[in-house]
Amino acid sequence: MPDLSQNISVRILKAAEAGHYGVPGVVCYNLEAIIACRKAAEAKKSPCQILLFPWAQEYAWDHLVNLASDVCRSASVPMSLHLDHAQSADAIRRAAQTGKFDSIMVDMSHYEKPENLARTAELVRYCHDLGIATEAEPGRINGGEAGVQDTGDLEGILTTPAEALQFIDTGIDFLAPAIGNIHGPYHGVENIKLDFPRLAAIRDAARGKVTLVMHGTNEFTADIFRQCVQVGMTRLNVNQVVLRNYERYAAENAGRTPLTDFMEQGTALIQERIEWMMDAVGSTGRATDVKI
């Protein structure tokens, strides 16, 4: 197996695991969010990962990818670029061939488990040969987000420790377990039902083999983020958690505010929420844990 110990995504999450803190993985759709990630990371002296969906390449060729990669490479703190929820071999190969992504989620969770495992193993080998770290989702996290296939018509399947080990055997570097988390809205914090004993069992089975990452965090409070970190999550993916104030501002001010002011204020609103999250997951001040 190729040595990925110097891969920046691996180093960021290994440091988080060792330091018992989490790192934000921020889903970005536009320039404002990408710039906000760097501004927040440098302001809080925190590691950070930018997450793009394959939609970014479908919409804008490699231009958003190039921007995000340049932001990560030029930042004064550790940042990496991750392709999230790549749900086809074509999307994975296309992204890998850019040479810009540090890690890719091989998301074959819409297939039944035997085919999921086989496809995952094949694509993990492909990515590793190019020096790219990989992630997979054992079980199935239901729901959908903008830019991701909605699995709401498929049965949600919670991850077991035994299943986690099956996916670890494919060679992945990061594991995204299903523990009651969902993509999209929970429709109230009271509806967030995470199985932390299950997560602890998965963590114990996976220890030393992969790092754990959290999907489906819409509506999470600071306390819920902290609980996830305490039980072993290293990267916590966020979408609406950091975008909601920006989207509210955009709805109220689009076409009524000079465009440069609109973009700057939008960026500031996203940055503010990312900084809040960095405090919540404990990554503030931990940039020096990762050597760049």
TrEMBL record:
<dbReference type="GO" id="GO:0006096">
    <property type="term" value="P:glycolytic process"/>
</dbReference>
<keyword id="KW-0456">Lyase</keyword>
<keyword id="KW-0479">Metal-binding</keyword>
<comment type="function">
    <text>Catalyzes the aldol condensation of dihydroxyacetone phosphate (DHAP or glycerone-phosphate) with glyceraldehyde 3-phosphate (G3P) to form fructose 1,6-bisphosphate (FBP) in gluconeogenesis and the reverse reaction in glycolysis.</text>
</comment>
<feature type="binding site">
    <location>
        <position position="107"/>
    </location>
    <ligand>
        <name>Zn(2+) 2</name>
    </ligand>
</feature>
<dbReference type="GO" id="GO:0004332">
    <property type="term" value="F:fructose-bisphosphate aldolase activity"/>
</dbReference>
<keyword id="KW-0862">Zinc</keyword>
<feature type="binding site">
    <location>
        <position position="183"/>
    </location>
    <ligand>
        <name>Zn(2+) 1</name>
    </ligand>
</feature>
<dbReference type="InterPro" id="IPR050246">
    <property type="entry name" value="Class_II_FBP_aldolase"/>
</dbReference>
<comment type="similarity">
    <text>Belongs to the class II fructose-bisphosphate aldolase family.</text>
</comment>
<dbReference type="InterPro" id="IPR000771">
    <property type="entry name" value="FBA_II"/>
</dbReference>
<protein>
    <recommendedName>
        <fullName>Fructose-bisphosphate aldolase</fullName>
        <ecNumber>4.1.2.13</ecNumber>
    </recommendedName>
</protein>
<feature type="binding site">
    <location>
        <position position="85"/>
    </location>
    <ligand>
        <name>Zn(2+) 1</name>
    </ligand>
</feature>
<dbReference type="InterPro" id="IPR013785">
    <property type="entry name" value="Aldolase_TIM"/>
</dbReference>
<comment type="pathway">
    <text>Carbohydrate degradation; glycolysis; D-glyceraldehyde 3-phosphate and glycerone phosphate from D-glucose: step 4/4.</text>
</comment>
<keyword id="KW-0324">Glycolysis</keyword>
<dbReference type="Pfam" id="PF01116">
    <property type="entry name" value="F_bP_aldolase"/>
</dbReference>
<dbReference type="GO" id="GO:0008270">
    <property type="term" value="F:zinc ion binding"/>
</dbReference>
<feature type="active site" description="Proton donor">
    <location>
        <position position="84"/>
    </location>
</feature>
<feature type="binding site">
    <location>
        <position position="137"/>
    </location>
    <ligand>
        <name>Zn(2+) 2</name>
    </ligand>
</feature>
<feature type="binding site">
    <location>
        <position position="215"/>
    </location>
    <ligand>
        <name>Zn(2+) 1</name>
    </ligand>
</feature>
